[in-house]
Amino acid sequence: MFRINFCAFIIGFIFLHQSVFAQTIQPDSLKSIIKKSLTYIINHQYKETKSYNFIGEWHSNMGLSLPFPLLGKPKDYDDQNCFTTVGIHNLLAKIYLADSVNYKYIYPTLQLAYTATLVFRDSTTFNFWHKLPSNLNRKNKQGIKPLVRRPTTFYLKSNFMRKAANIMDDADDTAEGYMAAWLQNKIHHRENLMSLAPELNRYIDLNRKNFHWYNYNRADKSNSGAYLTWLGNENRLWPKSIITTFFHNLIFFLPISECFPKAYTPYMPYGTNDVDAIVNANILSFLAANSELSDSGNYKQVVAFIHRKIMRKKFGSAAIYYPNRFHLHHAVAKAFNAGASALLPSIDSLILDLKSQQLSDGSFESKKIVNDKDKIQSTAYALSALLNAGNFKLYNTKSEIEAAINYLLNTKIESETESYWEGGVFFSGGTVVRKCLFFKSDAYTTALISQCFVLYLSLSEKNEWG
């Protein structure tokens, strides 16, 4: 009896696996879902500023999934930030550019989002958060309380956290902000005269005294030549010694530490800059699109840093600020598609990993601690990577792509006029809170999946499958 039941189980499993991968994607049905998902994004964009809901933006959630010292108990808060706004803008802009006739109705939404994106700009660089009134219990030397960068509603109960939340501008938001401007120029047929490479060339991991503890712990090479995350001066934790760094990091909450934040001064977490593979991939996406790779001066080093991360296959911990296992696949494939052709060996390895990780229902999953495996977000990132990697005949990925699409179609939340997907983790607080301080947005996840569907239809119409 056991043997019969076991055989039936195996046959059923194989049948299910084959049936999921064999489901046909109906173009007209997919177009209808895209229309409804874009309608959801349009309808849920803030059309006016009320309290901390800013015009042109979308709802985003900043929440703790576990209790954490200095941050408090598990709780979700509304949070408006650059990454949500610019991320949705850039995804919608790519949809619009793919077919400006059929998707012309998203143009007003795009323009409103772009105006909202520029609010996060400081001269030539961008910040993650809005400038808001300080919630410190003290004034500055001039006797006033100036605006600072901080979460919109997340309660910071100590003055230490209120100082530390005032983070400096970063390369990640800056690259995405520049990409938004580049996409706007393409939409309006304007020449791209901007340049980001000279700004970022000031912040390269070379000839540094410091070595971030997370990079050290993940066996990253010091002075890698890759781009640094934070656009500012780090504290001089020297003589160069990881012991010195660890000492100051361990007591970062004490005023005697070099890493202690100062009131009204933009803060670099832990006082030490870091190198993140996904941040570097996002930078390459813009530099490639803007034909600046030859001006970066360290293109080969960035590619080598990313490739080493991929070859180590520790995708769950490869990036400091992105805990989802498949976010690196998505970011690297996007950069490759934009023109960073030196990433091809990395793409080869990522495709092999994606093929080995897809589940029988077409989905992909991250670690359980990351939003309970984050299956929808993981599948969206994996699908994006498969589509942007191209070379469909060589990689033979059409069946994996369509299986992922079918899974996402089966997990949508739908009404008569709208469709959307529950937001997964697209960003985290990084380092020690990278697996408990999460940022999620239904609108962002829905925009990402919609853009994947549009790309799939475009490839199908051109018969790109080989």
Shape: globular
Number of helices: 17
Strand count, sense and barrel status of the largest sheet are: 4 strands, antiparallel
State Rg.
22 Å
What is the element layout, followed by pairings?
Layout: H1 2-22, H2 27-43, E1 61-64, E2 75-78, H3 82-98, H4 107-118, E3 121-122, E4 125-126, E5 131-133, E6 147-149, H5 159-164, H6 171-187, H7 197-200, H8 213-217, H9 242-250, H10 277-289, H11 299-312, H12 327-338, H13 344-357, H14 375-389, H15 392-395, H16 398-410, E7 413-414, E8 419-420, E9 425-428, E10 437-440, H17 442-461
Antiparallel strand pairs: 1-2, 1-10, 3-4, 5-6, 7-8, 9-10
Mind explaining what this structure looks like?
- The chain has 466 residues and is of the alpha+beta class.
- It contains 17 helices and 10 strands.
- Strands 2-1-10-9 form a 4-stranded antiparallel beta sheet. The chain has a two-stranded antiparallel sheet with strand order 3-4.
- Helix 3 (82-98) runs parallel beside helix 17, helix 10 (277-289) packs parallel to helix 12 and helix 11 (299-312) runs parallel beside helix 13 (344-357).
- It is globular and about 65 Å long.
